[in-house]
Specification:
Blueprint: E1 4-5, E2 12-14, H1 21-42, H2 49-58, H3 61-69, E3 83-104, E4 107-130, E5 133-138, E6 141-146, E7 150-156, E8 165-170, E9 178-183, H4 190-202
Antiparallel strand pairs: 1-2, 3-4, 3-9, 4-5, 5-6, 7-8, 8-9
Helix pairs in contact: 1-2, 1-4
Length: about 210
Amino acid sequence: MKQMKCLICGKQCGLLKVYHEECKALVYNAEAEINTILHKHQFGYLNDGKSEIISLVENDTLYKNYLMKQICDKSQIYNNEIVLQVEKKVSVSEQKNRCTMVRTGYKWNKQPVWNPSNDLLSENTEVVFTDKAIYFLFGGTSMRYPYNKIVNMGFNRAEFMLPAQAYFDVKTTSPFPHRFFMWSKLEKEKARKLSLFLSCISGFKYME
């Protein structure tokens, strides 16, 4: 039978195995360190969590390689950026405000009457955080938003039929926000994790 290759380091790991136990342990340790950084930043014990995470990833070659292997289409990521986190199977929706046609007398004119629309982009999105931007990858589509274009972010608790959602607003010429929502049907804590990571990397302190 063909020897399997470790999904983490890429080396052979034996029959019916998909990873070395020591590789899995190293990845778990890196993820635990990042979670510690996120919570220190959240509670105000760490001002520059972004630099801490970048340093951790840059100095851990195995974890860095592991993150890159989580991305289905690496060509969509700018090659001068450092991948810091990958979250899979995320639902993403986009909320825009659009100018509508309003009847004035006998004519229809475009007036500044803004009606929000919330469109589901994908229920199976890869959300990739790099040192410079957040990416949405789905169905061959790539959407990139640099952190310096983000003007607001937050977290909505689960209410009634609505799941908990992380969200952020990007800079726009409209007086109304261009907002993206992120959540997971399978993992209830996914939205919380996304909001913590985005807050730490972008420098925003969010309100619930």
